[in-house]
Amino acid sequence: MAVGASAQAASPPAGGTSWRARTREGRFALALLAPSIIVVFGIVIYPILKTLYTSLYSVNTPFPGHFPWVGLRNYTFALSQSDFWSAVLRTAYFTVVSTGLELVFGMAIALLLIAPLRARWLFRTIIVLPWALPTIVNGAMWRYFFNAQYGIVNAALTQLGIQSSYHAWLSSPYGALNIVILADVWKNTSLVAFFLLAGLTTIPAELYEAARVDGYGRWGSFVHITLPLLRPVIVVVLVLRTIEAFKVFDIIYVMTGGGPANGTQSIAFYTYQRAFSDEFFGYGSALAYLIVLFILGFAVLYIRLLRSDTYSMA
Amino acid sequence: MGSEDQSHTHDRSYTRRRFFSAGLTGSAALYLAACGGSSSSSSSSSSSAAAGGSVTLNNLFQQQAGYSASDLAGMTAAFEKANPNIKVNNTLVAYEALHDKIVSAAPAGTYDVVLGDVIWPAEFGSKGIVKDITSLVNTLPTRQIFPGALVMANYQNKYYGMPWILDTKYMFANGSMLKKAGVSPSSLRTWDGVVAALKQIKAKGLVKYPWLGSWAQAEAVICDYAQLLGAFGGKFLDASGKPAFQTGGGLQALQFMKMLLDEGLADPASTSSLEADVLKAFQQGRIAMNLNWTFQLAGALDPSQSRVSKDDVMILHTPAGAVGRVAPGCNGGQPVMITSGSKHPNEAWTYIKFITSQTTQNGYVKDSLPIWSASYSDPTVVHDAGAQLVDVAKTQLPNMILRPQVTNYNAASQALQVQIQDALLGKKSPQAALNTAASAFTSGAPPA
C-alpha cells in the first residue's frame, strides 16, 4: 500500500501537472543552456553583428565613439581597388595550388598508410607531426630553411653540387608565394591524408578482390573503386581545406610579411593591414565581410557538389 | 519502485536546487571578484603607490634592436628595488607586432607604458592612444638631450613620449676584406667611394655580393632609403607638407639602390632581408659592408656569434652623397609613452623617468647610446660602448633625418615600401614607382 501510494505520488497524472513539469523542465534546460548561449552570443554573434555595423561607418580609431555613416561605400571602395583584386587573385592561386597538392600528396600518403606495413602505427604517428606543429613555428622554420644567407636549403643544394651559388628564394614575388605554398602543403597534407585514410578503411576489401577477378590491375582498382567511393570524403576535405586556405594569414605574417612587392599578400593579410596597421576599422570590417562572401560562395559550390555526389551515390 | 522514483525525483530536485544555488553563489563570487578587481583597480590609482599601496605596471616593449631583453630586465630590477611599491610586468614582442598590439590593446587599457617609434607620435597623439606628457618632459633638463632625440617623441610641439632608444643607421665594414681589396676606409666617406670599394671587393672575388641591404617589405627598407635620401640631399615632404621624395635626392636614392642590385654589388636577397638577417650575413663574413643600427656592433664583436675578428669590425659614419656634403643618418629613435588608458600614469612616469635617466642609460650602452649629450664625454660610457662607436656617434647623432611625421604614416609607408620593391625588382622604373607612392601619401584612404 505504501509502495502504491508513493508510486502514485511520484508518477504525475496526465493534464495540468505535466504542463507545469514541462515548464519547469524547460526553465531548467534554459538555465543549463544559458552559459553556452551567452558565450556563443558573446564570442560569435555579437562580433559578427558588430563587424557588420562597423563596416557601415568610417571608423578610424580603436576607441568607441560616434562615426560618420558611409553605408555601403566601404564595400564599393574595396571592390574598386586594384590592390584588393590582386590580393583576391593571389589568394585564389594559393588556395587552388595548395589544396590541389595537399589532395594529391594526401592521397599518396593515405594509400601508403593503409598498406599492411610493419610498424604502421609509427608511420601514422610520424605523418601527423607536421599538422601538430603550430603554424607560427612552421612558418619560422621554413623561413629559416629558405633564408638566402644562412638557410639549410641553399647549404644543402650547394654542397650537393646542385646549384653553384646561394639563391635568394624569398626575394621574388612568385618564388616567395610558391615557397609559402610549399610550407602550407607540408603542414596540412597530413590532415588530408588522415581524412582520406579514414575513407579508405570503409571500402570493403571484397570489392578489390572482385576487381582483381575481373582483371583490373592496381591503377584500374584505384580509378574504378577507390576514387568513386572516396568522392564524398574528397569533397569534405576540399571544402575544409579551401576555406582554410582562403583565410591564410599566419604563415604569411611569419614568412614574408606579405612581400616582396606584395607578392604574398593574401586577402586576409590585406584586411589585417588595412584594419589594424592603418586603423581603417570600418573598411577592414567591410573587407572581412567580403572574405566571408567569397568563402560562402566556395561553400555553396562544394555543398552542391556534395549533394549531387550523395544523390549519385544513392 | 515507487520509493525509488520518489527518491530519484527528490534527488533531481535537490540537484536542481543545488545547481541554482551553486549558480547564484558562483555569480555572486564572480560579481564580488569583479567588484574587488574594480575596487582594487580604483584604489590603486595613481596615488596608491605613494600612499603605500602596491601598484603593478603592465608595459609593452620590443625584443629586437635597441636595448636587449636582459638590459630591460636589469633596468626594471633596479627600478623595483628603488620603488618597492611599484611592480613592473614587461611584455616583449617583435618590432613588427608592436604597433598593432598597442593599437588593439588601447581600448582595453591593457598597458601603462609602451615603447613607441619615432614615426608614431603623430598617429598615436592625434588619435589619443597615448598621453600628451609635454608638461612632464619639460620638468627635465631637456637642453642636455640631443635635439635629434627630442624630436622622436614630438608632434606639433607636444611630447607624446620620452626619448629613450637613440639610434641611427651606421656604416659597417669588414676591415679584413677592405685590406685584401686595397680599399682605404677613408674612401668610404662618400657613396661614390663605397661603390668603387664594392667593385674592387667583387673584382677580387672576396665575396659574390659585397653589399646586403635590409630592403624587405617592412619599415627596414624605408630606413635604408631615408638614409640614402638624406645623403643625396632629398626630402620626404616639402614645406607645405606635400610629398617631395619623388624628385631630386629621393629619386636619386632609389636609383642608387637599384644600381647596386643591377651591378651585382648588392645581394638579390636584400629584398627579403631585415636588419637581423644583415647582421647574420656580416657575422658570417658573407658581406663586406652594410648599413645597420647600433646593435650590429655588439653582435659583430661577440665571438660566440661572429666569425669576423674583433679587429676587423668597423663602424663608420654614414657616407655622404658627394664630397663636402654632410650625410644625416635615419632617425631610429624610440620613445617610451604612457597610454591614455593607463590607470597609473604617475607611476608610469616614475618608471619612464628612471629608465631614461642619464644614470640608468649610462649603464647600458652596448646596444643603445644615451639620449644625454654629456654621457658621450663620460669615460665609463666611452669605455663600455667603445671609443670607435662613441667617436662616430658624436658626429652622426646630432644630424639625423626624420621620416615623415604624418598621421597616416603606416599606410603611406606601406605604399612606399611596395613601390620601392617594385622598382628594385624591375617591375617599374624608380620614377614611376615613387610617383605612385607619392600619390598614396595624399589619397587611397577609404571613404570618410
Describe the protein.
The complex is a heterodimer of chains A (314) and B (448). By secondary structure, chain A is mostly helical. Chain A folds into two domains: 14-43; 73-313, MetI-like (MetI-like fold), CATH 1.10.3720. Chain A is 75% helix and 0% strand. Chain A is built from 13 helices and no strands. In chain A, helix 5 packs across helix 8, helix 6 packs across helix 8 and helix 8 crosses helix 10. With 448 residues, chain B is α/β, with parallel strands linked by helices. Chain B folds into two domains: 55-167 and 332-401, Periplasmic binding protein-like II (D-Maltodextrin-Binding Protein, domain 2, 3-Layer(aba) Sandwich), CATH 3.40.190; 170-330 and 408-442, 3-Layer(aba) Sandwich (D-Maltodextrin-Binding Protein, domain 2). Chain B is built from 18 helices and twelve strands. Chain B has helices spanning 2-43, 69-82, 95-105, 121-126, 134-137, 147-150, 175-181, 191-203, 219-231, 248-262, 275-283, 295-301, 345-355, 358-362, 379-385, 387-396, 409-424, 430-442; strands spanning 55-62, 86-93, 113-115, 154-155, 158-159, 162-165, 170-174, 289-292, 313-316, 329-330, 334-338, 400-401. Chain B has a five-stranded mixed sheet with strand order 2-1-3-11-6. In chain B, strands 8-7-9 form a three-stranded antiparallel sheet. In chain B, strands 4-5 form a two-stranded antiparallel ribbon. In chain B, helix 2 links the parallel strand 1 and strand 2 (86-93). The longest helix of chain B has 42 residues, at 2-43. Chains A and B meet through helix 1, helix 2, helix 3 and helix 12 of A and helix 1, helix 3, helix 11 and helix 17 of B.
Topology record:
The complex is a heterodimer of chains A (314) and B (448).
Chain A lengths: L1 H9 L5 H39 L18 H7 L2 H33 L5 H13 L2 H11 L6 H8 L13 H29 L3 H9 L4 H29 L3 H6 L11 H11 L3 H33 L1
Chain B lengths: L1 H42 L11 E8 L6 H14 L3 E8 L1 H11 L7 E3 L5 H6 L7 H4 L9 H4 L3 E2 L2 E2 L2 E4 L4 E5 H7 L9 H13 L15 H13 L16 H15 L12 H9 L5 E4 L2 H7 L11 E4 L12 E2 L3 E5 L6 H11 L2 H5 L16 H7 L1 H10 L3 E2 L7 H16 L5 H13 L6
Helix pairs in contact in B: 9-10, 15-16, 17-18
